Amino acid sequence: MSAGKFGTAINCIDGRTQLPVIEWLMENFHLDFVDMITHPGPDKLLSQGRPSELEAMKAKVLISIKAHGSNVVAVTGHYDCAGNPVAKDEHLSQIKRATEFIHSFTLPIKVVGLWINENWKIEIVE
Length: 126
Ligand SMILES: [Zn+2]
Fold this sequence. Notes:
The chain is α/β, with parallel strands linked by helices and 126 residues long. Helix content is 44%, strand content 23%. α2 crosses α4. Zinc ion binds at residues 12, 14, 40-41, 78, 81-83.
């Protein structure tokens, strides 16, 4: 087991979202490190992706959980997302579905769904 406490985030590639997500997770779950899995518009992928895409994402998350002992996984969506340019309401429903996908792993981990708003602040969705 690696030294330090790890969490995991499935986040957008968007550079504006990285530090807010890392800092929020470190503070709220008392983490030392956040493993970051990025994809343009991750909330869209996790809620509407093809089975093969979802399996690939699951494999990435499992590396973080198994190698680093992460016990919290965050899924995110954000304002002004180039990879998923839909209305906020649609993002929020996608984020909820994304948390259900992570819950489907049936692992003893916490799952949080986060919205990164127009001020690049974190709001808890689920
Ligand atoms: Zn984005």
